[in-house]
Specification:
2 copies of one chain form a homodimer. Chain A is built from 13 helices and 11 strands. The first copy, chain A, has about 375 residues and is of the alpha/beta class. The longest helix of chain A has 21 residues. At the A-B interface, helix 1, helix 3, helix 4 and helix 9 of A face helix 1, helix 3, helix 4 and helix 9 of B.
Chain lengths: ~375, ~375
């Protein structure tokens, strides 16, 4: 119940144990096609260039930035937590002229301030995090594509923690490049990073003047392996692909709508229980992510000793704070297969034992489930 | 029986199905330490900075190059196949001033010509492939560390296809940076890239003037997660780490010496059988890799139809040729768990059915096993 990796469904674990085939085997090619089709559904996009990059979510971030940016290109990065900061670092390492706008941790950006900055900076790319894993904040995305496109900019979205847990609508929002990770709300082990590029972004990549600085992440080559051509680039992570296919199948069976609803229901119950313990959110009211509950550690409570006790006595991991939230915030994940009533209830019961409580937290959660 | 991924031992498949823990969980930290200890044995090195990069072998190549090279640094790349060529491309993408020496495909470099080039170019880094997966050639490495160090150069070695199948002696050979992949002779699914850096190389990385151009592969950050500090960088591929630990345990149980001997024994039997079919090697005599048999497709034989029949009728995959060897060469892998007598014998029997043969190939292989 930390910020990821989330629990993995037994069917996904089982899929990983499937014997290997070659990365150009006809059976594997079928699996690749199925993964792409299901990823398009989960990302709500018709983008042809939608595939998993062979690395974790941070490799997905790097893949998006290094493919869109050439040395000297301007990029505007919106920073309100660790992962916006990371995107800035990645952009600088590939020679972008970077500008930033910032928001205090736990808050999100208003579309109007992004519009002002885009008009001022006129960047090639605007980078923003949809679900900030370090702060638990959900950035409204609805207007951002239009804002960027009016000024000729491309919109790059981090949806590592959002994909599969809350609505992610790549096409409807006008997102030009999106990256995610498998170990959050997709409930697959870490190791692959789904990415998707709009036709506009794909054209920018196709017509670059310079080579992409990363050979491994160069979409001009990677996409030839994922297209009918099946041109050898690097060996795909076979077992991880089996796992991702199974995780995506589970999402298709559940449907996105019911999956989002489930994440919300468990979040509301957890929140009610935490409120009964006097625990408040570190995130701006109304922007809390259902799957990543960033809450203030109560005064006088020792961060590490509670987290160690939860792990040792109850087998529960919750996350500590990152960066300026270190020692101040806990991050409670209810992601994918982890988002279940039994997890909410046992965590609240365990917290009552650790912090002192007479059953009010569990009762409040149960009331929320029943209402 | 292609050029990788190789077959995976059932114990490794089983390990992948283990439920996930967090990437900072004390249990996982123990696994990380065990992986590092066993990798040092398998790579025959005492290098502190020895760990698996979170990507496939090509990410390992990129990790080595981008960490050692700063823009404008000189790098000499030895090219006698696809992977030397790839290393040149990677080096150019990170701003190296590159020089090359070349050998026809299937041949290897003489230490004296490398020494001449190093004296002439005075590069910061010399890159060479130990086991060229595209040609099946084994490069002698014994003198190369001394040659490089005498001129102040660092020696970078690709041991993707060699590690775990033939002797790889990082320290004895004076290798400063080495990278491999998990899906060849380690017989683990693809997805991780073991790397190792000498103290000399680690110092070069520590004292860089510019940031490493890849955030994801920046060893200055990655190593802080693998050190006692456990500083969060990116989420480690948990299930793949379980698999690598189990694959390394299998190697430790077998011992490297017996594993190398097994690879050689099965290679000799295969070679005897192929000779009985009139099939010759594309690799310079005496330089054939036991684990990657690159052989000339007999005149008049159709590449694709034989490979398709092997797959459809016998469930056997062998590799086609890459680059200039396409349509001319088959690549028969006997890597790790795939290197077994039953595989050699069934492939020869199947080839006899495809190409015509009266049992001489199988008999020759059996004779080689018995002698």
């Amino acid at each position: 119940m930390g910020p990821g990796p989330s629990d993995v469904h037994p069917r996904v674990l089982q899929a990983m144990a499937t014997p290997l085939v070659g990365h150009l085997d006809p059976e594997f090619v079928t699996i690749m096609n199925e993964i792409q089709t299901m990823l398009r559904y989960v990302m709500q996009t018709a983008n042809r260039l939608t595939l998993p990059v062979s690395g974790t979510g941070s490799a997905g971030m790097e893949a998006c930035v290094v493919n869109l940016i050439e040395p000297g290109d301007s990029m505007l990065v919106c920073i309100n937590g660790v992962f916006g900061q990371r995107m800035l670092d990645v952009a600088q390492r590939c020679g972008a002229r970077t500008s930033t706008i910032e928001r205090p941790w736990g808050q999100v950006f208003d579309p109007s301030e992004i519009a002002d900055a885009v008009r001022r900076v006129r960047p090639k790319v605007v980078g923003i995090v949809h679900a900030e894993t370090s702060t638990g904040a959900a950035q409204p995305m609805e207007e951002l594509g239009r804002i960027c496109h009016e000024q000729g900019a491309l919109l790059l979205m981090d949806c590592v923690t959002s994909l599969g847990g809350v609505p992610v609508k790549v096409d409807e929002w006008g997102v030009d490049a999106a990256y995610s990770g498998t170990q959050k709300c997709l409930s697959c082990p870490p190791g692959l990073a789904p990415v998707s590029f709009s036709e506009r972004a794909a054209e920018v990549i196709r017509t670059r003047k310079s080579k992409v600085q990363s050979w491994y992440l160069d979409m001009n080559m990677v996409q030839r392996y994922w297209a009918d051509e099946r041109f050898y680039h690097h060996t795909a992570p076979i077992s991880m692909s089996y796992a991702l296919r199974e995780a995506l199948r589970l999402i298709c069976e559940e449907t996105l709508a019911l999956r989002w609803e489930r994440h919300l229901r468990n979040h509301r119950a957890l929140k009610a229980g935490l409120a009964a313990l006097g625990i408040t959110y570190a995130t701006e009211a109304g922007r809390e992510l259902p799957q990543l509950n960033a809450v203030n550690i109560p005064p006088g409570v020792d961060d590490l000793s509670v987290r160690r006790r939860l792990l040792a006595d109850f087998g529960i991991e919750i996350g500590g704070g990152l960066g300026q939230f270190k020692g101040k915030v806990w991050r409670i994940g209810l992601m994918g297969h982890t988002s279940r009533a039994e997890n909410v209830l046992v965590l609240l019961a365990a917290l009552e034992q650790c912090l002192g409580g007479g059953g009010a937290a569990v009762a409040a959660a149960n009331a929320a489930y029943i209402s």
